[in-house]
Specification:
single chain; mainly alpha; 14 helices; 0% strand
């Protein structure tokens, strides 16, 4: 009888923990610690391909999103060719995208990401960027947000953090690339970036808010993203964008079944949707 009681106590204790030893998050808690995803059941070895694959895909996808739009607009609308003056921005976008990939694949607790944030900050002190004060401060502000959003005690892994991240991810790097290449910013280009903002707002909702509140919010962010796409351009490709966005919405409900691959797929689907939109 005592053995049965002991086994039951051990079972109840284990049932209150995740497999990696963390306490089971409380569903209705207001604490940001309790709102992190269930996917991170075990830490992957950094020599494991399952660690590197999401990292590489996220870094590649983010860089395509940031670079393709301003370069495509400059070359097709303004007839301005690519210039190697953008080289410091290559270093900034690469290091910053690595930092973001580490953050979202390591459950918003990546100490290694701070190293790449610092490296990205160093690129902003090059003469090409530092002499353009508005661009310089925008890029530094984005780096600061990547540090702040990892401090769970601040509790900004919510709609505020989502809006800040979406706005800075949209209106910092693409604007910096466009301005460095053309030495001016047009109002039309800013309007051109609105679907990009709503794409970050939608596709990063389940990444920053992986909880019931986030799933409810994603209904609104999905609607806003679709409206932004239709207001930008309507052609046959809109069908595929709708399919990809609906797939991302459904993906939220898979929870722990595919782990880090889930966040990777959100960013990958975002990149494909925006490429189709601009094609």
């Amino acid at each position: 009888m005592d053995n049965i009681k002991t086994d039951k106590n051990n079972y109840d204790f284990q049932g209150q923990q995740l497999p990696d030893g963390r306490k089971m998050p409380r569903r209705f808690s207001l604490n940001a610690f309790d709102h992190r995803p269930f996917e991170q059941f075990a830490r992957l070895d950094k020599m494991d391909w399952r660690f590197w694959t999401p990292l590489v895909v996220i870094v590649t996808s983010l860089n395509i999103v940031w670079w393709y739009l301003p370069l495509h607009y400059s070359s097709h609308t303004l007839q301005v060719p690519f210039t190697w003056q953008l080289a410091p921005m290559m270093g900034y976008t690469l290091t910053t995208s690595i930092a973001i990939a580490l953050i979202i694949t390591q459950n918003f607790r990546s100490y290694l990401s701070y190293l790449f944030i610092v490296l990205g900050t160093l690129f902003t002190f090059t003469s090409l960027i530092q002499t353009r004060q508005e661009i310089f401060w925008l890029l530094l502000l984005f780096n600061a947000l990547l540090i702040i959003i990892q401090q769970l005690w601040l509790g900004i892994q919510n709609i505020l953090g989502l809006l800040l991240f979406g706005a800075l991810a949209t209106f910092t790097i693409p604007i910096a690339l466009f301005y460095v290449q053309n030495d001016f910013i047009t109002q039309r280009f800013l309007i051109y970036l609105l679907p990009v903002f709503f794409s970050f707002f939608f596709y990063f909702t389940p990444i920053i808010m992986p909880n019931p509140n986030g799933r409810k919010l994603s209904i609104l962010t999905l609607a806003l993203f679709i409206v932004a796409i239709f207001s930008h351009h309507v052609d046959f490709g809109i069908i595929f964008i709708l399919l990809f966005s609906c797939a991302a919405f459904i993906l939220q409900f898979t929870k722990a079944k595919i782990g880090n691959w889930q966040n990777m797929l959100y960013v990958l689907l975002q990149m494909i949707s925006l490429i189709i939109m601009c094609h």
